[in-house]
Amino acid sequence: MFITLQHMKYFLTLFSIIFFYAVGAQQPISKQRASLWQAVIVRADGNQIPFSFELEMENNFPVMHIINGSERIRVDSVHFESDSVFIKMPLYESSIKAAVSKGKLIGTWTKGTTTRDQVLPFSAEINKPRFLASSGKANYVASGKWAVKFEADSMPVSVAEFQQQGSNITGTFMTPTGDYRYLEGIVDGDQIMLSGFDGVHAVLFTGKFNKSNSIENGRFISGAKHNESWTAIKNPKAIVKIDETAMFIRSGQDRLNFRFPDLDSNFISITDNRFLNKVVVIQLMGSWCPNCMDETAFLSEYYRKNKDRGVEIIALAYEYSSDFYRSKKSVGKFQNRFNVQYPILITGIPVSDTMRTEKTLPQLTRIKVFPTSIILDKKGSIRKIDTGFVGPGTGEHYEVYKNEFGEMMDGLLKEE
């Protein structure tokens, strides 16, 4: 739809009403401080997943920042048609459409999947906390490390780490397949509640303290349908076990051999001259994957700083469908957002394809986790396979990962 000056004035007036109604501001809207909103995604089973965002005007245009603990995800694709607001996430196939009604936003959240789009009700209200406490105080302290057992696991192979100040809590859950990034919530009486929203994944964790070192009756709510129980025991020595997600080179194989198109439809092969006598990192990823977002940000920065030392990186994308142009559009968001200067190749094999490994990397055992990184030495031999990624939401664990990655790469670069 063509946006006229009249539309723009109407849109700004709507947000002006919201700002002035909520905070009683007297200054021009373009100079107002960000307003805090509570958003809620409502599932068919009645469960509600809350998250927070800030909304402000920059040069007379609205900008949204999704808040997850210390994380701020900038969303500047905010448009309107008539009385509706359209918010397009900077990454992923994800968007929000809502109408302004009495100081609230009411509408839907839509995200792409391997089949049809998923649509869930969405609403947002200004100056409302992420979680509303009923008791007004925290009877327990969640800070520390917890060994977590999810319903689907045969043993407690996951770990939660929390930091609590008063009733407020931040942290994450680390599993063999990756972490749940930045989570934020409260401890209310004997209840613990945390949630997160990154544009494609909406998650809610709730539980009840049984003792100071035990959480029971936990529920893990994710997306439109996932609902799983969990329990936890405080354990400062808890570690994530990744044995079940490990990936190996098959017997009798010693070299990878693949060839796929990049985003400009140019075919690139691991046997091309640009990769000879280089230390090469092969990133198995998907534009639908939040942990892949974190890894892409890390690898992109590392490549810019080290490409002149003899480092190459190639990303192999496994997307929702085999449609090249749909995949290109989604992967292109990653490329632009993180200024990715290494090639991202479209495998053309959907992530849901059970034969995805055999069709793309038959030299390896089954791809179980995204992201996975494969590190080759200068001779093209596989020296390490990392399944999953320890992202910035894990705090010190992320710093340890970066240091270990850098030390290994330095060692390989020194080899003849």
Structural notes for this entry:
- A 9-stranded antiparallel β-sheet has the order 4-3-2-1-9-8-7-6-5, with helices on one face. An 8-stranded antiparallel barrel has the order 10-11-12-14-15-16-17-18. The chain has a 5-stranded mixed β-sheet with strand order 23-22-21-24-25.
- Helix content is 18%, strand content 40%.
- It is an alpha+beta fold and 416 residues long.
- It has 5 helices and 25 strands.
- Strand 19 (259-261) and strand 20 (267-269) form a beta hairpin.
- Rg, rounded, reads 23 Å
Q: What's the helix count?
A: 5
Helix content: 10-25%
Largest sheet: 9 strands, antiparallel
Taken as a percent bin, the fraction of beta residues is 35-45%
- Structural class given helices, strands, pairing? alpha+beta
Q: Tell me the series of helices and strands, N- to C-terminal.
A: HEEEEEEEEEEEEEEEEEEEEEHEHEHEEH
- Rounded mean pLDDT score: 90
| Arrangement of strands in the largest sheet | 4-3-2-1-9-8-7-6-5
Summarize the structure.
With 416 residues, the protein is of the alpha+beta class. The protein has helices spanning 5-23, 290-306, 324-337, 356-360, 396-414; strands spanning 35-42, 48-58, 61-68, 71-75, 77-81, 84-88, 94-101, 104-111, 118-126, 144-150, 158-165, 168-175, 178-179, 183-188, 191-197, 202-211, 214-222, 226-234, 259-261, 267-269, 279-285, 311-317, 344-346, 372-376, 382-387.
Question: How is this fold's topology laid out?
Answer:
Blueprint: H1 5-23, E1 35-42, E2 48-58, E3 61-68, E4 71-75, E5 77-81, E6 84-88, E7 94-101, E8 104-111, E9 118-126, E10 144-150, E11 158-165, E12 168-175, E13 178-179, E14 183-188, E15 191-197, E16 202-211, E17 214-222, E18 226-234, E19 259-261, E20 267-269, E21 279-285, H2 290-306, E22 311-317, H3 324-337, E23 344-346, H4 356-360, E24 372-376, E25 382-387, H5 396-414
Parallel strand pairs: 21-22, 22-23
Antiparallel strand pairs: 1-2, 1-9, 2-3, 3-4, 5-6, 6-7, 7-8, 8-9, 10-11, 10-18, 11-12, 12-13, 12-14, 14-15, 15-16, 16-17, 17-18, 19-20, 21-24, 24-25
